[in-house]
Design goal:
- This protein has about 350 residues and is of the alpha/beta class.
- The chain has two domains: about 5-170, 3-Layer(aba) Sandwich (Rossmann fold); about 185-330, Rossmann fold (3-Layer(aba) Sandwich), CATH 3.40.50.10490.
- A five-stranded parallel beta sheet has the order 2-1-3-4-5, sandwiched between helices. A five-stranded parallel beta sheet has the order 7-6-8-9-10, sandwiched between helices.
- The protein starts with 6 loop residues before the first helix and ends in an 18-residue tail after the last helix.
- It has 13 helices and ten strands.
- Helix content is about 40%, strand content about 15%.
- It has helices spanning about 5-15, 15-30, 30-35, 50-65, 75-80, 105-115, 155-170, 175-180, 185-195, 195-200, 220-235, 270-280, 315-330; strands at about 45-50, 70-75, 90-100, 120-125, 140, 210-215, 235-240, 255-260, 285-290, 295-300.
- The longest helix has 17 residues, at about 50-65.
- The protein is globular, with a radius of gyration of 19 Å.
- 1-O-phosphono-beta-D-fructopyranose binds near residues 50, 52, 106, 151 and 342.
Length: about 350
């Protein structure tokens, strides 16, 4: 790993410890959170902005998969300005996620939701003294996700872990909830074991475009890793559902392309076939998943955890690649170009 010490690097490397602290809070809040079971509502909606919208996409897919209740995600700006395209009849459970707890669109969406009496609000953020942490029917604060950098890393994975815990509780899968405690050690092992691979790919000047492929709960994570590559390294990057890549975007594959596959176990066959197509077109691939992959570079978690609870493990190496590419381009990953830590609107 590049030796330059940045906030972003510290925050990425400290994620396992942040997850330990977040899981202690989730264990303490376990009973209160179970009260908001989705079977008491017509639907569960997740919302956020930028990274936390992508988190909402993954959380909604996982919640619906585990509970069987309808789960959807919208950018907070859509709930605020186009609510008629988002809400259906019946009471809604809204889960609003924000690292800062003060993003204007998220606050406006929650204020309107409550004013219109649409249902119950769970807020999930990292700062207890900021507005969002005081708005919810239930407010869940995970301070270990707090960070200095603009581009979310530790905050994102800690808050995402919070939504995974919610899905486990709401589906009455105490076994899955209890298994979350094994994630920090798996995260430590991945960060140590694949730091050099991330540095190699991040420093590779022969790459000029990146595609992150993920399906189901992993699509939101693919969107997040694509955003990290943009924010930190100013690189062209796009996310796609795995098999969607064949329907046009693969026309962009060149020898300077890296496709990063957030491969599942359930659909390893069809997903690996898409990555093989990229190789056949001269592109490069990195497969991330529980098992090792045949062909190309690979990150194997070998966590022994259920597929429903291990998605957070896809994040660290993708974050490190973006960090390393930023540093190799002489950029400052802590202060991405054109961005602010929080978007505050007048
Ligand atoms: C949302 C957000 C981030 C983005 C940047 C600007 O912040 O859009 O996702 O990376 O930092 O703010 P928050 O509502 O999660 O604090």
């Amino acid at each position: 790993m590049t030796t330059i010490d940045t906030y972003t690097q510290q925050e990425i490397l400290s994620q396992p410890e942040a997850w330990v602290a977040a899981l202690e809070i989730l264990q303490d809040q376990r009973v209160g959170l179970q009260f908001f079971n989705p079977d008491r509502y017509a639907q569960v909606l997740f919302t956020g902005c930028g990274s936390t919208y992508y988190l909402a996409l993954s959380a909604a897919a996982l919640t619906q998969a585990l509970t069987g209740q309808p789960g959807r995600a919208f950018p907070a700006s859509e709930l605020w300005l186009s609510s008629q395209t988002c809400y259906t009849a019946g009471r809604t459970l809204l889960v609003a996620v924000s690292r800062s707890g003060e993003t204007t669109e998220t606050l406006r969406a929650c204020q309107a939701f409550l004013a219109e009496g649409r249902g119950d609000l769970i807020t999930l953020c990292c700062y207890p003294d900021l507005p969002l942490a005081k708005m919810g029917t239930f407010n869940l604060v995970l301070p270990s996700g707090q960070e200095q950098s603009v581009a979310q890393t530790r905050a994102f994975s800690s808050l995402f872990l919070g939504t995974v815990a919610l899905a486990c509780l709401w589906s009455h899968r105490d076994d899955l909830f209890d298994s979350l405690s094994r994630l920090p050690e798996a995260g430590r092992r991945i960060l140590e074991g694949y730091a050099s691979l991330a540095a190699e790919l991040g420093a590779d000047e022969g790459l000029d475009r990146f595609y992150f492929l993920g399906s189901g709960p992993r699509f939101g994570l693919a969107c997040e890793l694509s955003l990290k590559m943009k924010e930190m390294s100013l690189s062209h990057s796009e996310p796609f559902h795995f098999l969607e890549f064949r329907h046009g975007p693969k026309s962009m594959v060149t020898s300077r392309t890296l496709a990063v596959g957030l491969r599942s176990s359930a659909n390893a066959g069809p997903e690996s076939a898409v990555l093989k197509d990229v190789t056949a077109l001269g592109g490069r691939i990195l497969t991330m998943g529980e098992e090792s992959a045949d062909g190309g570079r690979a990150v194997a978690f070998r966590s022994g955890l259920d597929e429903a609870v291990r998605d957070v493990l896809y994040l660290p190496v993708g974050q490190l690649i973006a960090l390393e590419r930023s540093l190799s381009k002489g950029l400052n990953p802590d202060r991405p170009t054109n961005l602010d830590t929080v978007v505050l609107l007048s």
